[in-house]
Amino acid sequence: MKAKTKNISIVLYKPKYAGNIGSVARAAKNMGISNIIVVGKTDFDREEMQQRSTHLASDVLDQIQYFERIDEALGVFNYIVGTTARLGKARGPFIAPRTVAQNIADISQKNKVALLFGPEDTGLANEELRMCHAIVTIPTSREFTSLNLSHAVMILCYEIFIASSGALKTEAVAPKLARSQELEGMYGQIKTLLADIEFLNPENPDYWMMHLRRFFNRSSLLSREVGIIRGICRRLEWYAHHKKT
Questions:
Q1: Order of strands, edge to edge, in the sheet holding 113-117?
Q2: Same domain, 160 and 194
Q3: Most buried of 58, 90, 101, 237 (most Cβ within 10 A)?
Q4: How far apart are CA 126 and CA 105, in angstroms?
Q5: Any idea what DSSP says for residue 211?
């Protein structure tokens, strides 16, 4: 099944160098993707971006969307793929680019997909990875794991391109998933409820929430399912309040 590239966006979180944005634009266009979102700084040097992208990808630069906050940038997306080179139990589980590319070819038919990349020097922090439905790590030599930003973008976009070439045949199309802003609203409501009933450790409430996020992300929730969960939370909040009074 061919991925719907119009539904796929590359999201660069706090990139530091205009040249890297230009290189990302070139890599993206090579693989048929034209949507780029930049979060954070907005006053990048256009000439430097143009030099690295070449004039053939200038249309991709013209369409770049800029946001100040990551939650605003990701709010409309149904499926978010984060990328990281740093491993750890608090950051995984991790999947390979080829596996996630096959999923994206299917999911992108009816859903907006974001490929999220962090700053060149630090990558994505745990806070940003919590917003992701899947976390990708690109296999590299153990002696040198750091990849140039545009190289990482190219690898993931290439795998999506190959997964769409016809080698993968999927019968069913993935349904439309809940948007990130819907999920974040649900997580906030669950966190408040669990804190009210003293289930969460007040000194580290995000520890258990991290596990709940992973659980729900594996379920690929639909909008109506998020609505059901939020309705249950509201009823439990009402019950907990009246039991106290």
A1: 65-67, 35-39, 8-13, 113-117, 79-83, 134-136, 94-95
A2: no
A3: 101
A4: 26
A5: H
Model pLDDT for residues 87-107, shown as the tens digit of each residue: 766 666 788 899 999 899 899
In a domain, 218, yes or no: yes
Q: What percent helix, strand, coil does the chain show, rounded to 5?
A: 50, 10, 35
Residue 173: inside a domain: no
Q: From start to end of the chain, where are the E strands?
A: 8-13, 35-39, 65-67, 79-83, 94-95, 113-117, 134-136
| Cβ-contact 177, 54 below 8 angstroms | no
Percent of the chain beyond pLDDT 70?
93
- Structural domain count, the chain: 2
Q: Residue 28 corresponds to which tokens in the numbers above?
A: 């993206």
The answer for 88, left when phi > 0, alpha when psi is -120 to 50, beta otherwise, is left
Does residue 150 share a domain with residue 186?
no
